[in-house]
Structures are given as C-alpha cells and as structure tokens.
Input
Amino acid sequence: MTRYANYIDGEWLDGPTFSRNVNPSDVDDVVGEYSQADVQQTARAIQAARKAFASWSLSTPQQRFDVLDRAGTAILARKEELGRLLAREEGKTLPEAIGEAGRAGQIFKFFAGEALRLGGEIVQSVRPGMTVEVTREPLGVIGMITPWNFPIAIPAWKIAPALAYGNCVVIKPADLVPGSAWELVKIIAEAGAPAGVINLVMGRGSVIGEALVNSPDVDAISFTGSVSTGRSIAAKCVETGKKVQLEMGGKNPMVVLDDADLDVAVEACVNGAFFSTGQRCTASSRLIVTEGIHDRFVEAVKARLKTLKIGDALAPDTQIGPVVDERQLAQDERYIAIAREEGGTVFGGERVAASTNGFFLAPALITDTTPTMRINREEVFGPVASVIKVKDYEAALATANDTEFGLSAGICTTSLKYATHFKRHAQVGMVMVNTATAGVDYHVPFGGRKGSSYGAREQGSYAREFYTTVKTAYVNA
Ligand code: NDP
Output
C-alpha cells in the first residue's frame, strides 16, 4: 500500500498516523494511506509559510507567472491520470473528473496571467502638489480548508490566486479525499515553488482545521464546506482578527415556466440536480414548475432518469457515480424518508446493486412538495431533487427566493421578459437562463449571498479582493 506524506517547508514528512483513502465505488479498493498531520506539524507548516513569505511576497510577477504556468501545463498534461485518481477517490464519473482536473489546469494558467496583470491606480489628490497611489499587496499566510466534493478544482481555485498575488499557503484538504490535493501540491512544488510557499497538512478538520483557524500566524482563512462549520470558523476568525472567506451550501431553485422548451428544461434539470451524484453546492435541488407544464415535465424527467446508468465511477458507460461515503448515503436516505413522511411522492431513491461494492443510490425525484417542507429548506447534498408546483411566474420567483441560501438560481423559459426579470430579481450570486444551476466558467466570479457565502468572491480577477490588501500612498513632490 502506497503511503503519502505531508508537505512542509519543502520536505515530505510523515505524520504520527495514517488514514485510508477508500474508493466509494468499491470499498475493497484502497487508493492509498495518507499521513495525518498533528498540531505540531501544522504549526511548523505555518512557520515555514511565514518565513517564505518574506521573499515570495517580493518575488517578481515573472517568477510567480513561471511557477503557476508550469503547474498549469503539468496539470493539463496529466489531466486523464489526475481525473482517474479523482474519480476513484470521490466517485464522480471519469468524464466529470477529467473535466475537473482540466479546469484546475486552466485556473493555474489564468492566474499565471493575473500575476502579470496586477496593477494599481494613481489618483489626483485634493491637496496641491500631492499625488495618491493605490496599490495592492499580498496578505501573508493563507490557511485553506476544502471539502470533498471538488477535490482538485477547489484547492486549485484557492491556491492559484493566493500564490499569484504573492501569498504563502497552508492547505488542509478534506480527510475523505486527500489524494487529488496531494498530487496538486506535488505538481506546484515541482513547478518551482520555493520551500515554504506551499504546504500541505492532511488530517481532520477538528484538529488541523482548528489549528489553522486559531493560529495567530495565519493572516486569512479561505473555507469551502458546510454552513455550520463555516459559521464557527468565521466567528473564530473575527476573534483572532483574520480575514475570512466562506463558500457554503445551497438550495438552488430551477424555475421551469409553461413556455419553456421541454427538452432544454429536462436536460438542465437532470444535469443540474443529479450529475456529479447531486453532490454540488450549486445543484438544482428545488425544481419550481408552473402548472401548465408541470405534469409533462415530471413525466419527461422520470423517463430520462430511467435511462441513466448508475455504477462504478470508472466504468465507461456510467452516468451517475456513487455517493461519497456511508454517512452521506445515510443522510440522503434520511431526507428521502422525511420527504415521504411530509407527504411527498418519491420516484427512485432506492439503493442500486452494481458489479462493485459501492454506495450507489438511484436519483430521487420528489413530487407533491410544498415550499415549507424540510426537503425544500435544508441541503441534502445528494442525488435528490424536489418539485414544487406553482401557479405562475410571480409565484415561481417568490418561491425561488424563499430560502436562507443564495448561491445559484436558474430559469427555463423562451420569454425574454421573464428571463430578464429573473436575472435581476433572483437573490443569488449566480443566475442561469436555460442551463443548469451547476457548471460554471473558471475565469469569472463564483459565490453567492445570504447563507451561502460570506466575504469576497472567489475566482476570476475578483479573487484579488480576498488575496490582496490595499495600500494608499501619498506623495508630496
Ligand atoms: P464540512 O464543513 O464538514 O467540511 C469542510 C472542510 O472543513 C473539511 O476539510 C473538514 O475537515 C473541515 N472542518 C470540519 N470541521 C472543522 C473545524 N471545526 N474547524 C476547521 N475545519 C473543519 O463539509 P463537507 O466537506 O462535508 O462538504 C459538504 C458541504 O460543503 C455541503 O454542505 C456543501 O454545500 C458545502 N460545499 C459548498 C461549496 C460552495 O462553494 N458553496 C462547494 C462544496 C461544498 P474533515 O476533513 O475532517 O471533514
């Protein structure tokens, strides 16, 4: 069994214990044993990052471009192999996983360019003879805590901008899927990141994550994960004076109006709700359908779901892979049971036997639901979507916004009037017309509002808001 070490100050160091990374498509397949760091190693990684910051923060844009560009090239060249590892440890299908690995490579290429593009402003002073310069500088040491559902893309979209703007990084990936982040960090090290600039400490959030959040030597925390963990991290960051950015859950609405193209709507909803096994914070989990198209839409979605092949993520014909682990499978089934008890009608949602011993669940479509049911208020994070029948567009919009979340929202319509109104009035960070609520570009801002996100947006050039601090200089010349 191959063992994988933590990466601290340019060295690969074993922690005191190891954790087995198990394939959710086949629990008899162990991907590897990954070192669990302890609090002392985490402190060492933070000190290494602090030391490296002195020179990395003053490195030239060309040096940072070169490291990021080489890393991007290596990721893209190895995307099939990295995608295979990702599919094996997380359970998304091979094409989805290869797509995610490719996206990580593109993110590094994009932020290589951003390192060169970081500019400032010269502003005329209100005082005679004075000039004002507004520039951006790196923050320092960034602690990163990432979830299991995008094991390479999320670490990539946090690490690449952090390094591009001259910060140093200590990353703790999700304990369930450390393999992709381990490969990513190795690639960045081999691309020429000096010792201490990037550090990897694997292990539990309650140990390593807490140590990062509580350390006075960490300047900022970038977190993606659940709402409860995110909120507790934010409170601690305020206490210790850290900048913080949280990306959390969603209960994303997809509105389908009477005038929608039925085929487009079914594809957008099935993709948005069930692909990647529904384990996306942007998943279309509430399908809000006007009454004129409701019955036709529901029948068409059911027919489409019957055609989907569920099974081993690595098998070439699989369209829906396994749920990530036993705990998440139990959560998905609990929510299906709750929906049934509350009066919903459940289609699908049963366990599926496959050729391998994995956590396979048939997509569940729950009809006859109302907006107040728990299935329409709480995030499930699995292949489970509910349908809410509404009278008209106005009722659909009100229902879409009736949630504590605000990440992504979609509408399927052929009406320019409704599409335009929805774009303006959906209370979310990302809005989609005639396409799934999930699936975003890598060069534009990602994030939400209300309970879904806190702090500056991620990705695209907006990432600089989080990873830099602004300095205003006055020159009396
Ligand atoms: P968790 O919040 O449990 O975990 C996220 C990360 O936080 C993991 O690395 C975890 O470590 C760590 N963590 C757990 N407890 C602490 C703590 N006390 N202090 C510091 N770190 C801690 O979420 P999941 O990984 O289970 O991911 C699923 C959730 O994430 C869903 O609710 C989903 O909506 C959300 N999500 C949001 C996204 C977005 O962009 N908006 C994207 C992806 C997911 P450990 O390894 O021990 O679990």
Q: What stands out?
A: The radius of gyration is 23 Å. The mean pLDDT is 97.
